[in-house]
Specification:
By secondary structure, the chain is mostly helical. It has 4 helices and no strands. It has one domain. α3 packs across α4 (about 50-80).
Amino acid sequence: MSPEQRVLRAQIAANTRWSKEDPKEGTKAARAAFERRFELEVDPDGTLPEVERRRRAAAAMRAHMQRLALASSRARKKVS
């Protein structure tokens, strides 16, 4: 199977799954684990108040996403 065919097969499987169930519920555990990663990054000892830990974790997540966007932008520039 070619790489393009594998991608198409994966897309079919994903669309079939999400046609039968709620994507928010289906990815709830993964999203919680992803958010927890940033909470542990900014407060590994769990000493900050919850509101401050969540604020810092949200900022850390935004920084992570911005780093990904920058890397993507650089990669696209190399290709063109």
